Amino acid sequence: MTVKPASGAPPTPALLVIDMQNALVAIAHRASATVAAVAGLQSRARAAGAPVVFAQQQDEELEPGTDGWRIVPELAPVAGDTLVPKAAPDSFLGTELDAVLRARGVTEVVVTGFATEICVESTARQALSRGYDVVLVADGHTTSVRPAVSGRYAAPEESVAHHNEIYRNLRFPGRRVRVLPASEVDFGRGTPSYGPGAPSPG
Fold first, then answer.
1. Which alpha helices (H) appear in 71-179, and where do they start and end?
2. What span, in angstroms and rounded, lies between the C-alpha atoms of 61 and 124?
3. Is-catalytic flag, 136?
């Protein structure tokens, strides 16, 4: 089922904030900068009337009602926002996310949150598979801080840059995939794409 807008029409975006919860942001790389980027996006999305949707992990380590499970105060939902509980990296799996987006006429998902390689990546790919265009916010997603002896994980700054580069070059039939810094995301009309080789933040 397609959710593409009519030919020539601008996209109808929604801001998706994934797992920006106290316990997770506490272990995040560039936590303050990422929170600030997402907060700015929230403000602009709400001002433009674009939906702000939170995907909120809940499991044995993030029990509903606990402080660690709550969204960080700087990004706290307000009236009109939507919270979608989830139990898997894919924010669409077994949740109401797809129904929420379709009910609002959303055709493009602006993806932010934690963690880059897990919930952000899984959700962005599923959004494409379900017919949505995707904007990955280059400075609006992050991952955990890695100890120097953390095995073969990439360093956090390298992981973020790696995934940004993948999405800059990702071609998905019938979809528009873009990587934009938070400052260039426009919730009113379409914004320019970064093509391969074009300058953009890492």
1. 97-103, 121-129, 156-169
2. 24
3. no
The one-digit pLDDT tens for each residue of the chain (202 residues) are 556 554 457 889 999 999 999 999 999 999 999 999 999 999 999 999 999 999 999 999 999 999 999 999 999 999 999 999 999 999 999 999 999 999 999 999 999 999 999 999 999 999 999 999 999 999 999 999 987 655 788 899 999 999 999 999 999 999 999 999 999 999 985 443 333 333 333 3
Domains along the sequence of the chain with CATH: 13-184 (3.40.50.850)
Length of the chain (residues): 202
How far, in Å, CA of 9 to CA of 101, rounded? Answer: 18
Which of these is catalytic: 52, 109, 119, 177? 119
| Predicted TM-score of the model (pTM) | 0.89
